[in-house]
């Protein structure tokens, strides 16, 4: 277990999936577990099988080593910072357009919410959960807006959203 200090990056193979996490074989006789809450920053995962398969190779970070109970806690999302930085660059290079019905002086009949932005991102091939799209309040007028997207606790992208009249 001394071979796996907290903070170290490890690679392993998914050995088993349960409702609460994924067991990863680090080497013969040594497994670690990725708790379901430590799988992704960008998606709420209900069961590890939504994103992982038995036999998959996985990279993770050692979060904690419990020598008494012979357990190694792993986190996949901590290993995803590079992926989040790449997604940030792609989102910041993007402008999404959303059509809405507008009345006088560009005021919308309704509003544009994080649900609308999530849908527009999915149409462009991006899988970002709406709770990661940070709108202080719904957009209620035509125009261009910069919307923060919280990809990880320390990675936030600025997404350009253009609301056009339909």
Task: Give the SSE layout.
Layout: E1 9-18, E2 21-27, E3 30-35, E4 57-66, E5 71-75, H1 81-92, E6 95-100, E7 107-112, H2 114-123, E8 139-141, E9 143-152, E10 155-165
Parallel strand pairs: 3-5, 6-10
Antiparallel strand pairs: 1-2, 1-4, 2-3, 4-5, 7-8, 9-10
What does this structure look like?
With 166 residues, this protein is mainly beta. The chain has 2 domains: 9-75, OB fold (Dihydrolipoamide Acetyltransferase, E2P) (Beta Barrel); 82-165, Ribosomal protein L9, C-terminal domain (Ribosomal Protein L9, domain 2, Roll), CATH 3.10.430.100. The protein is built from 2 helices and 10 strands. The protein has helices at residues 81-92, 114-123; strands spanning 9-18, 21-27, 30-35, 57-66, 71-75, 95-100, 107-112, 139-141, 143-152, 155-165. The strands form 3 sheets. It has a 5-stranded mixed barrel with strand order 1-2-3-5-4. The protein has a 3-stranded mixed sheet with strand order 6-10-9. Strand 4 (57-66) and strand 5 (71-75) form a beta hairpin. It starts with 8 loop residues before the first strand and ends with a strand. The model has no long low-confidence stretch (mean pLDDT 91).
Topology order in helix (H) and strand (E) letters: EEEEEHEEHEEE
What's the story with the biggest beta sheet?
5 strands, mixed, barrel
Q: SS-based structural class?
A: mainly beta
Distance between the termini: 61 Å
CATH hierarchy, class of the largest domain: Alpha Beta
Percent of residues in helical segments?
Answer: 10-25%
CATH-level-2 architecture of the largest domain: Roll
Radius of gyration: 20 Å
Instruction: Specify the overall morphology.
Output: elongated
Strand order of the largest sheet: 1-2-3-5-4
The mean pLDDT is 91
């Amino acid at each position: 277990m001394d071979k796996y200090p907290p903070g170290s990056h490890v690679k392993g193979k998914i050995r088993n999936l349960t409702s609460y996490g994924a067991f990863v074989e680090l080497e013969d006789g040594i497994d670690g577990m990725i708790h379901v809450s430590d799988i992704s920053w960008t998606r709420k995962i209900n069961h590890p099988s939504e994103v992982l398969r038995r036999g998959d190779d996985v990279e993770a970070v050692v979060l904690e080593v419990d020598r008494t109970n012979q357990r190694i806690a792993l986190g996949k999302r901590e290993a995803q910072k590079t992926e989040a930085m790449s997604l940030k660059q792609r989102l910041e290079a993007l402008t999404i357009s959303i059509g809405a019905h507008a009345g006088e002086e560009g005021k919308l009949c309704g509003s544009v919410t994080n649900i609308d932005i999530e849908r527009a991102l999915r149409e462009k091939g991006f899988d970002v959960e709406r709770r990661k799209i940070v709108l202080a309040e719904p957009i209620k007028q035509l125009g261009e807006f910069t919307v923060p997207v919280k990809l990880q606790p320390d990675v936030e992208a600025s997404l350009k959203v253009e609301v056009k009249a339909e």
